[in-house]
Design goal:
The complex is a heterotrimer of chains A (284), B (245) and C (309). Chain B has 245 residues and is an alpha/beta fold. Chain B contains nine helices and ten strands. Chain B has a domain of 166 residues: 3-Layer(aba) Sandwich (Rossmann fold). In chain B, strand 9 and strand 10 form a beta hairpin. By secondary structure, chain C is mainly alpha-helical. Classes of the chains: A mainly alpha (284), B alpha/beta (245), C mainly alpha (309).
Chain lengths: 284, 245, 309
């Protein structure tokens, strides 16, 4: 029972990291970033390259990986997305193409086999009588810390207020001297960094293969839809719901069906309450 | 004169702010009534409530005895209530004629074979006949206003709600629009409800004024009386006397 | 007929003549097969453009309808052994039902819910097709379907005929009052409601039509390949269809059909590049998205032809 609780918490934590970034960039810039899963994959593969191939110290490779993903995300926003902002279809397409292209790159460079990423914490820890893999606990801790830091940043700093202003009304924010465009780029960087960090921290115990972005994307979707597009608290709550559901299904039924959990969650939400748990109901 | 529209205790809250508070009034058929009030008084919210674009938190509204609150916008239009928007909303990518044609395609109208003729008629009425084939993107704002009204007219309304029709118009464009509205009223017996916060324009048009402030009705009466009403003056003084000009 | 109309008719005649004459002239079964897929792509692209191009609501899961039609054909013909011609109405019905299921709750809402729902639904169906392998054959899919017409050339003319019919029907609807309303929805939904139009109804009805033709294409594809696999629901297929419509000209049904034909031809020609095929594909998409917002084929024709739009 405790095992399920702990593993559930870890899964929820990773899901939350993925979902918060996705919902953040949507909430602020109205961008549905279909490359979000690719950021996750990029983070994992960077971590793999730096630790396993280049043998860099773990902390260094973690920071480098997250940094690279953040820069990649900002570059994508600046170069590919910004010019196409008037058409949401074009933005969706360009992020999707970015994801597919990145997937191809990873496939060509690294091959289709799963990679083993060395863990930061190699030994199991004992939690209340249950032996848990140290890396997973670390993931849980890091997720909580990062999301907490993001929340504080948005609520307590001036830059955070600027972000909130832009998410409510970009034009009005610009009249007040806030450079909306640069905020969009910054938020994309934050979003990408979170996804990349998720990849770095979860890589050691989740599968690392070129198509990992797709599962990540679908799961992030489901969390964000259930939680409500644009709502960070909603994403966190939904991440817990879906994370624990997946863990229960994996433990008591069949690990293969975890993917179905997220998809069912999407269906149910869209049919019963499309705006999600904490999204705003908007009728056309 | 029979009551065309009866509103009782209409209320709307937006997370903590009561935008419309217990508003009641009656509009008789064939009247031109004005809704006056400073910015934020709840006038547009009132329109949104009456036309189904926003759900209400209480109260009732009846058009010729039929309740209309809570129905979808297109249903209310087909009951005979048409509106224009404060910021003109033409259909982009279409011509003037096509814009009006959409209004004629409302189930209420069922123009059938006479669609083109009816569209041409309406365009003549508002003075846009010569611009029928133009794409809306190149129209000057005054013409966009007329197009808004034309599209509303196309749905054969009994009650026409005009939301700040004079906003954004230059000095030379206001008088012709006043004439147009008067002409529509006189020739078709349309019942009209106009929102404005500039008095001079609609003093000439309306026979009765409903004054609002902070979501409540603070006074109703003839235009000349309303302008001198202490509460109405007070609602404007706080926002600058020039607003009354 | 106006001068523009005459030129349009002439252009269409030439194009159709080319399409009809090329395969027998080249006289190569492989190429005929390529043309068959080109025509089916044309049906898919035209049906996508009918909904998304006209109403402006992005459909990111057109493969849902394609796969739905394909698997309907597989079940009826492959598993139950029914005459393959029955697959056509079956595929259409299945696709329309799927469209209504997804469209009904989500087209009412503002925001990206519809686009996401379509994307997610196609992914869900793909997973279901994989997971329920006892019924669907899993990743292998179902094979051994009968073909509709024995000879390749015959199949091609069947599909070409259906493509022409698709373009004609959809264009007629697009030019009718229904089409005007769809364009008004694209122009400003709120204003459309204020004009007394039941916007949700028209969106759902248009989606159903779009789904029907996509499902029809799915059946034709399944019976041609004589097999179906979960990749008939794949997101890559959905975006390919969107690219085709973009290249052809969003809002132009015949343009989208041409986009479908062109893109598949191009993909074939690029086969020699092996792994890099996809790169070039993506590059083309980016170029189109950036520099040809209105598309390529339809705007090009308008410029060549002159006259009014």
């Amino acid at each position: 029972m405790l095992t399920v609780l702990i593993y559930g918490a870890v899964t929820s934590a990773i899901l939350a990291m993925l979902a918060v970034g996705f919902t953040l960039i949507f909430g602020v810039a109205r961008i549905l970033n279909l490359a979000h899963g690719a950021f996750y994959a990029l983070g994992a593969y960077c971590a793999y390259s730096f630790t396993a191939l280049l043998k860099l110290p773990l902390i260094v490779s973690a920071l480098l990986s997250v940094g690279i993903v953040a820069v990649f995300g900002m570059a994508m926003e600046r170069v590919l997305v910004r010019p196409l902002r008037q058409s949401s279809l074009a933005v969706l397409m360009i992020t999707l193409v970015t994801a597919l292209t990145l997937e191809q790159v990873l496939f060509v460079v690294f091959g289709s086999q799963s990679k083993n990423v060395p863990a930061f914490v190699n030994f199991p820890l004992d939690v209340g009588g249950v032996s848990v893999d140290g890396q997973r606990l670390l993931a849980l801790v890091i997720a909580v810390v990062l999301i907490g830091a993001l929340w504080l940043f948005i609520q307590r700093t001036r830059l955070g207020s600027a972000i909130l202003a832009v998410s409510q009304d970009p034009e009005a924010a610009q009249y007040m001297g806030i450079p909306a465009n640069r905020i969009f780029t910054l938020v994309m960087g934050l979003s990408a960094a979170l996804a990349g960090a998720a990849g770095v921290i979860a890589g050691p115990f989740l599968s690392v293969r070129p198509t990992m972005d797709q599962t990540a994307m679908i799961t992030a979707f489901s969390v964000v839809i259930v939680g409500g597009l644009g709502s960070i608290p909603g994403s966190i709550l939904a991440a817990c719901i879906i994370g624990f559901s997946q863990t229960l299904v994996a433990f008591y039924f069949n690990p293969e069906w975890t993917g179905t959990v997220s998809l069912v969650a999407i269906l149910l939400t869209l049919v019963i309450r499309p705006s999600g748990l904490m999204g705003r109901v908007v009728n056309a | 004169m029979s009551a065309l529209l009866e509103v009782e205790g209409l209320t709307k809250r937006f997370s903590g702010v009561t935008a419309v508070k217990d508003v009641s009034f009656t509009i008789g058929a064939g009247e031109i009534t004005g809704v006056l009030g400073p910015n934020g008084a709840g006038k547009t919210t009132l329109f949104n409530l009456l036309t189904g674009f926003v759900p209400s938190d209480g109260g009732a509204a009846r058009l010729e005895g039929k309740p209309i609150l809570g129905s979808a916008p297109h249903v209310i239009v087909n009951l005979g209530v048409a509106r224009t928007f404060q910021l003109c909303r033409p259909f982009h990518g279409m011509t003037v004629r096509e814009n009006v044609a959409v209004g004629c395609l409302a189930p209420r109208v069922r123009a059938g074979g006479g669609l083109e003729r009816r569209v041409a008629e309406i365009l003549e009425q508002v003075g846009l006949g010569h611009k029928a084939a133009q794409p809306v993107e190149i129209l000057p704002y005054g013409d966009l206003r007329r197009l808004e009204i034309a599209r509303a007219l196309a749905t054969r309304p009994r009650l026409l709600l005009l939301d700040e029709p004079f906003a954004g118009l230059g000095a030379g464009e206001i008088e012709p629009l006043v004439q147009l509205i008067r002409r529509l009223h006189d020739t078709q017996g349309l019942t009209i409800l106009i929102i404005e916060h500039k008095l001079r324009e609609f003093m000439q048009l309306v026979s009765r004024v409903i004054a609002m402030d902070f979501g409540e009705v603070i006074a109703t009466g003839a235009p000349a009386d309303i302008v001198r009403h202490p509460k109405v003056i007070e609602s404007y003084i706080g926002r600058g006397k020039h607003a009354l000009a | 007929m106006s001068a523009t109309g005459k030129r349009n008719a002439a252009g269409a005649a030439v194009l159709l003549g080319l399409l009809a004459a090329l395969p027998p002239l080249i006289h190569n079964q492989y190429f005929t097969g390529v043309f068959i897929v080109c025509a089916i792509d044309g049906i898919w692209a035209a049906s996508w453009d009918f909904f998304s191009g006209l109403t402006g609501r992005e459909n990111f899961g057109h493969a849902l309808f394609i796969g739905g039609g394909a698997y309907a054909a597989a079940f009826l013909n492959g598993s139950f052994g029914l005459n393959p011609w029955f697959s056509i109405p079956a595929g259409i019905v299945v696709a329309v039902v799927l469209g209504l299921l997804v469209g009904f709750p989500t087209l009412r809402l503002r925001g990206p819910y519809f686009a996401l729902a379509m994307l997610a639904s196609a992914a869900i169906m793909q997973q279901v097709a994989i997971n329920l392998w006892q019924y669907t054959g899993g990743t292998e899919g179902i094979y051994g379907l009968d073909t509709l017409v024995e000879s390749s050339l015959g199949y091609y003319y069947l599909v070409l005929g259906i493509l022409v019919a698709t373009v004609v029907v959809l264009s007629l609807i697009a030019k009718s009052r229904w089409g005007t309303l769809m364009r008004a929805i694209k122009g400003d939904e709120t204003a459309c409601q204020a004009a007394g139009i039941n916007v949700t109804f028209y969106k759902i009805a248009s989606l159903a039509v779009s789904a029907a033709f996509a499902g029809l294409g799915g059946v034709l594809f399944a019976q041609y390949q004589q097999a179906v696999t979960p990749s008939d629901f794949d997101v890559f297929l959905s975006i390919s269809v969107i690219i085709m419509a973009y290249v052809g000209g969003i809002g132009s049904i015949w343009g989208a059909a041409c986009g479908g034909i062109l893109l598949n031809l191009m993909l074939e020609l690029l086969r020699g590049l092996g792994e890099y095929r996809l790169w070039v594909y993506y590059l083309i998409l980016m170029v189109v998205l950036y520099f040809m917002r209105e598309g390529f084929v339809a705007p090009l024709w308008r410029r060549l032809r002159g006259g009014q739009a």
